[in-house]
Design a protein that fits this description.
Strands 2-1-3-4-5 form a 5-stranded parallel beta sheet, sandwiched between helices. It is globular and about 50 Å long. The chain has helices spanning 10-13, 20-24, 40-49, 51-54, 66-69, 82-99, 120-136, 144-149, 152-155, 165-184, and strands at residues 2-7, 28-31, 59-63, 102-106, 140-142. Helices cover 45% and strands 11% of the residues. Helix 3 (40-49) runs parallel beside helix 6 and helix 6 runs parallel beside helix 7. It is α/β, with parallel strands linked by helices. It starts with a strand and ends in a 22-residue tail after the last helix.
Length: 206
């Protein structure tokens, strides 16, 4: 059995994450936080809290970006600047790569044009920027943006940002497919042990 971790914001939490375990089947054990992994720095902090549950995972699939990109304060500024997003995402990437054999990044999905806080041209900018850097590190790219963008009207629900039932099915099938492909490349004799032993949150701020 291959253990897999799914990390991500609500696109994962209330979306494809609910379907992927069933699609993967009995040969896979899937851990994913009940928590919404939100923005990049929140995910970075969460890697400490989730380390115990993630231990033994050989594949980690994660998405992160819609929270960072949004102009939630309506002041013309993104919640996370591109430079800060890049710094946090590269820290996440390097930690995951040091602990797990296969790391997969899913690009942030598009929104409907009527979304008041997120714009697709900005989502594309952040996606393209981080994908280029992740490829240099050998991270597998799962381009959910392009997949969903083929039919935004039907793949995104009425709230203009979350996946519709059709979008959930579409993304879940792609996520499961990419994970299975990565699993087929694993060396059964090369299980990588996590470099940190998760003892508890004792001594860490909560």
């Amino acid at each position: 059995m291959i253990k897999v971790t799914l990390l991500g914001d609500s696109i994962r939490q209330i979306g494809y994450g609910n379907v992927v375990p069933e699609l993967l089947g009995d040969k896979y054990e899937v851990f994913q936080p009940d928590d919404n992994c939100r923005f990049a720095k929140y995910t970075l902090r969460g890697l400490f809290d989730w380390a115990g549950d993630m231990q033994g995972s050989r594949i980690v699939h994660f998405n992160c970006g819609l929270w960072d990109i949004c102009d939630i304060m309506d002041d013309g500024e993104h919640f996370t600047s591109l430079s800060e997003y890049t710094e946090n995402m590269l820290r996440i990437a390097d930690i995951l790569l040091s602990r797990y054999e296969k790391v997969i990044f899913a690009t942030s999905t598009p929104v409907k044009p009527s979304n008041p806080h997120n714009k697709n041209e900005v989502i594309e900018e952040y996606n393209n920027h981080i994908v280029e850097k992740f490829k240099e590190r050998g991270i597998i790219i799962n381009d959910l943006y392009s997949l969903v963008a083929e039919d935004i009207e039907n793949n995104i629900c009425e709230d203009t940002i979350h996946l519709s039932d059709k979008g959930v099915k579409l993304c879940a099938e792609r996520v499961a497919e990419v994970i299975k492909t990565a699993a087929a490349e694993l060396d059964d004799n090369a299980v990588r042990e996590c470099k940190t032993v998760h003892k508890s949150t004792m001594g860490a701020p909560v």
